[in-house]
From TrEMBL:
Name of the protein in question: non-specific protein-tyrosine kinase
Residues that span the membrane, as ranges: none
Source taxonomy: Bacteria, Bacillati, Bacillota, Bacilli, Bacillales
Domain AAA residue range list: 49-175
Catalytic activity, reaction form: L-tyrosyl-[protein] + ATP = O-phospho-L-tyrosyl-[protein] + ADP + H(+)
Length: 222
């Protein structure tokens, strides 16, 4: 995953921004209808675009005047700190361990309404921290301080963390990659979410080929 600065140098940024604005608008209606203020974004496998989607959806929420917190809960493969070019690596795990308060682990980003909580230094047993009272308390405490709390979660199939997180979040947004994510993988991921009694609020199909003439598709390679 590249950095936010690299992304902004892309000549097709206006096209991407339009698509993310459309996604956020649709999400906003769904969230208000269900009274949802926190949701996680996940995928079946790694490298399907969930972190890039998380960062840009969170940015659009912030741009529309919402005080937004983006939490990196992918302890196995964190990427948001690099993408947003946040220097200090204190975050989720530091709060869960009780070392720092919420305001001390929420880092400033390129947008005044958007805060990032990086993973911090990942522990050897991340799944135990995900499945903890402290994680549940973190989500509830964050909801009291922010309009929206968005969690970038690990992929569902190789790691159990997201199955646990999905039961703690008000909603789940699922990302798949066209011609890469297999049908049976999507079915298995949905099965895991169903077992966890997760509330799937929508999906994003990434990697669809885009014609230069119509730009009706949705494509990125982060």
């Amino acid at each position: 995953m590249k950095t936010y600065h690299d992304f902004k140098q892309n000549k097709e940024v206006p096209f991407y921004k339009e698509k993310f604005n459309s996604i956020q608008t649709n999400l906003q209606f769904m969230l208000k209808k269900q009274n949802i203020r926190n949701f996680m974004i996940t995928s079946a496998n790694m490298s399907e675009g969930k972190s890039f989607a998380s960062a840009n959806i969170a940015e659009v929420f912030a741009e529309k005047g919402n005080k937004t917190l983006l939490i990196d809960a992918d302890f196995h493969r964190p990427s948001l700190r690099k993408y947003m070019q946040v220097s200090e690596n204190v975050g989720t795990i530091d709060y869960l361990m009780g070392d720092l308060a919420l305001e001390d682990v929420c880092q400033d980003t390129y947008h005044p309404n958007l805060k990032l909580m990086p993973t911090g230094i990942a522990p050897p047993n991340p799944s135990e921290w995900v499945d903890s009272v402290e994680m549940k308390q973190l989500i509830e405490t964050a909801k009291q301080s922010f309009d929206y709390v968005i969690i970038d979660a690990p992929p569902l199939l190789p790691i159990t963390d997201s199955r646990i997180l999905s039961s703690l979040c008000d909603g789940v947004l699922f990302v798949a990659f066209a011609k890469k994510t297999k049908r049976n993988e999507i079915k298995q991921a949905m099965r895991y979410l169903e077992i966890a009694d997760a509330n799937v609020i929508g999906g994003i199909l990434n990697g669809v080929a885009v014609s230069k003439n119509d730009r009706k598709g949705y494509r990125y390679k982060y």
